[in-house]
Amino acid sequence: MTPQQTGRNAMPHEHVQLAQAPNGELGPRCHKCGMRLTFGNAMVVDQYYMCWEHYVEATGADTVTVVADADERFWMKQD
After folding, report:
1. In 8, 29, 35, 50, which residue has its Cα 20 to 30 A from 43's Cα atom?
2. What is the dihedral of CA 44, 35, 40, 55, to 10 degrees?
3. Does this model's pTM top 0.85?
4. What is the pLDDT of residues 23-33, one digit of tens each?
5. Which domains are present in the chain?
């Protein structure tokens, strides 16, 4: 059957731009800036893949993780 016979004209993810890394790995491009991503680090907004910066811009969501800047690590303390 042809796509016209089934009523389908496009693949469901045809709108996703793909990129190939030097090692041959395929992944999406950010919908906003075109940066090459892996599927593991890409964030999804609606039907589009985005890098972290554009995900935050689009959703207003951000990380709640606070990275402390400690001079001395807990395992280095001398009691």
Report:
1. 8
2. -30
3. no
4. 899 999 999 99
5. 11-69 (2.10.110)
